[in-house]
Design a protein that fits this description.
alpha/beta; binds 2-amino-2-deoxy-6-O-phosphono-alpha-D-glucopyranose
């Protein structure tokens, strides 16, 4: 795992953008994520696109996850969210931004079709990830198989609580989602996980320094040959080997 620690969330976004633009400019297949954490990165990428430093015209994208039971045009569906916060502001071809079909009549079939679509596209080159306060990635909650495929998942009560801020009240938060599985995510060639804020520090410590365990789904990154984790000081604050990670980052062999 490559661990980069930056002073502020804005610097996390800049470091992530430096990596992301190389993939976009090469016409790569991008895995996108929703949630608050990547918003600063999307704003940075939008500014760079306006300045002509990056283009998404040759890229396609797959979203990590989607609520089940929301119409895709509901403002909190991830289909709508990713367009509102990112892809409609840059030169992405809209039809090439795909997400799991959360409003499908048959979610199991939609989940299998999504894995198939990713495979047909040749796989994901770089998958952006956030992390839930309980260590989830996508909507893979604790107890998710580390080899799971895209599937219907039941949200943990903590996730429902965390995501209630996007809805009128807790009761309006969907209880189910379609999420790329941990096995699906692990097939992306490069994983890029961003975390900011002290409320993520326990999950970050468990992901980086805890045991490989379905109890902390993000710990599956420990198995990935190319995982980059970019943290602000607050998210990194519980890491035991912090000074070593800083040394590695500052003294990279040429
Ligand atoms: C949601 C999403 C995840 C995201 C997580 C953290 O549950 N399904 O993909 O990583 O929340 O979100 P935030 O960045 O808003 O803390």
């Amino acid at each position: 795992m490559d661990i980069l620690i930056r002073s502020t969330p804005a610097e996390v976004a800049t470091a992530a953008a430096d990596i992301f633009v190389r993939y976009a400019n090469a016409g790569a297949t991008l895995g996108l994520a929703t949630g608050s954490t990547p918003v600063a990165l999307y704003q940075e990428l939008t500014s760079r696109c306006e300045r002509g430093e990056v283009s998404f015209a040759r890229s396609r994208a797959f979203l990590l996850d989607e609520y089940v039971g929301l119409d895709r045009f509901h403002e909190q569906s991830y289909y709508s969210t990713i367009r509102r916060v990112f892809t409609s502001h840059v030169d992405f071809i809209d039809e090439l931004v795909q997400s799991p079909e959360g409003d499908a009549a048959n979610p199991d079939r939609a989940a299998a079709a999504y894995d198939q679509a990713i495979r047909h596209a040749g796989g994901i080159d770089i998958q952006l990830l956030g992390i839930g306060g309980n260590g989830h990635i996508g909507f893979n909650e604790p107890s998710s198989s580390l080899q799971s495929r895209t599937r219907l998942e039941t949200l943990h009560p903590r996730t429902v609580q965390d995501n209630a801020r996007f809805f009128e009240n807790t009761d309006s938060v969907p209880r189910y989602a379609l999420t790329q599985g941990l096995g699906t995510i692990s097939e992306a060639r490069h994983l890029l996980l961003l975390a900011t804020g002290t409320e993520k520090s326990t999950a970050v410590r468990n992901m980086v320094e805890g045991p490989l365990s379905a109890h902390c789904p993000a710990s599956v990154l420990q198995l990935h040959p190319r995982a980059t984790v970019i943290l602000d000081e607050d998210a990194a604050s519980q890491l035991e080997d912090l000074e070593y990670y800083r040394f590695v980052d500052e003294h990279r062999p040429h």
